[in-house]
Amino acid sequence: MRLRLDDNERGAFHYLFGGVVVVILLKGIAFLADRLGPSLSADQAALRPFQQGYPLLRGELAVVATPTGLTERLILAVVLAVGATFMLAVLLALLSTAWHRSGGRGRRIAVRLVLMLTLVWSVYAAFLLPIKETRVEKGELLIRERRSFIGDIPWPLSLHERRLSSGEVLWVEGGSDPPVAREKGKAWIDVVTTAGTERAAWVRGLDAKDELELLRAASDGAAVLERELR
To answer: Whose CB has fewer CB within 10 Å in the chain, the N or C terminal residue?
Structure first.
């Protein structure tokens, strides 16, 4: 059995190039917005390394437990969209071959629709929807969590919120894990509560020469959240 893809379905491969262009443009917009936005206070600047490039968190008392930066998430969004489109195109081609039908216009519409919806959602999520966000709000710790679809791209409509009063939070601490073998280290911020410890933020890719600097950044970020919570 010979598998045939029509011009539109083969065009899904070409969308990868267009996706790369989209990533570069969106990354450029985010970079300019971050550089040209209002200046940050010392406390806001201390939290920025632990916001992983989410534009709307800039200037907020918030951190995210997301290991990837904006560029990585945008690349993942494009790969996810192209991959979903390709798999659908192959599936429809197999069904058409098995049923001896061309599928024609219906196949083209389905492929394009999946590409558009997946790309729009995944890029939107990469920009604005952290898998886990922790922020200080009205004297409480607000934790927003979403279920992961692939990597740091969440499922739609999967938001779950929790609130912890200042009495439930024993302390907020920052620290780092040193590089081990071929793995780089990471800096992190943890929230210690009456129910246990959970990770509020972390930054991976820590080289030995950067360990002290990021450890200081994690400690400063934890101190900001602790102070604002009290």
So the answer is: N
Structure tokens at 173: 């601490």
Average pLDDT, rounded, for the chain: 81
Of residues 61, 56, 107, 60, the one with CA closest to residue 85: 107
Q: How confident is the model at residue 1 (pLDDT cuts 50, 70, 90)?
A: very low
Q: What is the 3-state secondary structure (H, E, C) of 145-189?
A: ECCEEECCEECCCCCEEEEEECCCEEEEEEEEECCECCECEEEEE
Residue-wise pLDDT tens digits, 95-117: 666 666 655 666 677 777 887 88
Model pLDDT for residues 9-62, shown as the tens digit of each residue: 555 556 656 666 776 777 777 677 666 667 788 888 899 989 998 988 988 999
Query: Cα angle at 137 between 134 and 138, to 5 degrees?
Result: 155
Q: What distance in Å separates the CA atoms of residue 100 and residue 12, rounded to the nearest whole number? A: 23
202-210, Cβ contacts within 8 angstroms, sequence gap of 24 or more = 202/50, 202/65, 202/67, 203/49, 203/50, 203/52, 203/67, 204/67, 206/176, 206/177, 206/178, 206/179, 207/179, 208/178, 208/179
Pair of tokens at residue 13: 């491969």
* Angle, alpha carbons 203-161-59 (nearest 5°): 50
Burial (CB count <10 Å: 0-12, 13-18, 19+), residue 22: middle
| Positive or negative: CA dihedral 126, 129, 130, 136 | positive
